[in-house]
Design brief:
This protein is of the alpha/beta class. 44% of the residues lie in helices and 23% in strands. It has helices at residues 15-43, 81-93, 111-122, 140-145, 173-192, 198-205, 222-226, 236-253; strands at residues 5-7, 10-12, 45-48, 57-67, 78-80, 99-109, 128-136, 149-152, 157-160, 217-220, 232-233.
């Protein structure tokens, strides 16, 4: 039997019990770190909950090419939309998540998948912030602007171009009408969730002087902000700080 003492009606743990409790806490901490490492390795996500504000932030990365209905090669770095959409649904339904931070370094990819991700992020009730690192090209543009507030680093880039399709197409007017319909969906979403006017966005898409082998524009850092696509130039510290601010404001309103 462990020796027990009582003081003011409360049981005091023995040294053996305290040591056992400390060991158990250390094991739980190790298991928690292993789980975080596994989530980062497998899905590019983790929970940020060590800040002074004690907010729980879901970090989600959109890296490489946005994979849609067709499976990309094993050598291609890709973000799978069928993984991302359930994650976002779980975030929305969780009382343990206070906000979402989306970090992007993507070349774009499948239009339908990219728009689905952008619409899903835009429909979240939780505060959301995006940060463009490296680049957020093509269909990455709607994803970047889908959050409540957006940042881009000084060297971050965006390639804005009209809708394109690789492979054989049927050369009839209906095909090009369909292309225009897809493009209207993209431009409509971007303009609705940013400050850029549709006319200016189309001008950037149809620019012929900048890209030698393509039609479109390349914007860098402050240019992206001046055009009204992204809200502010900033880094990780700015993005996390803004998200904490949005979370605190929401809590105060509630």
């Amino acid at each position: 039997m462990l020796h027990q003492r009582k003081k003011k009606g409360k049981r005091i743990m023995s040294k053996e019990e305290k040591k056992e409790k400390d060991n158990s806490m250390d094991e739980n901490k190790i298991d928690e770190e292993r789980l975080r490492d596994d989530q980062i390795r497998d899905d590019g996500k983790t929970i940020l909950d060590k800040g002074r504000q004690k907010h729980r932030i879901q970090l989600i990365s959109i890296i490489g090419e946005v994979e849609g209905h067709d499976i990309l090669s094993s050598s291609t770095k890709a973000t799978k939309y069928e993984h991302l959409l359930p994650q976002l649904a779980r975030v929305e339904d969780s009382i343990d998540i206070d906000g979402v931070l989306i970090i992007l370094n993507t070349m774009g990819g499948d239009v339908e998948a990219g728009l689905a991700i952008a619409e899903m992020i835009a429909s979240l009730s939780k505060p959301t912030v995006s940060l463009v690192l490296g680049g957020s090209h093509s269909i990455g543009v709607p994803i970047a602007v889908s959050t409540n507030y957006s940042f881009v680093v000084k060297t971050g880039t965006m390639v804005i171009h009209p809708v394109r399709l690789n492979g054989m197409i049927i050369g009839v007017s209906q095909t090009f009408d369909y292309f225009k319909q897809i493009q209207d969906r993209i431009t409509g979403f971007v303009c609705e969730h940013s400050k850029i006017e549709e006319k200016r966005l189309l001008e950037l898409m149809m620019e012929t002087k900048m890209l030698t082998k393509d039609v479109g524009s390349v914007l860098v850092g402050e240019e992206i902000v001046r055009e009204g696509i992204v809200d502010e130039v900033g880094g990780m510290n700015d993005a996390i700080g803004k998200l904490h601010e949005l979370i605190s404001n929401r809590a105060a309103e509630e």
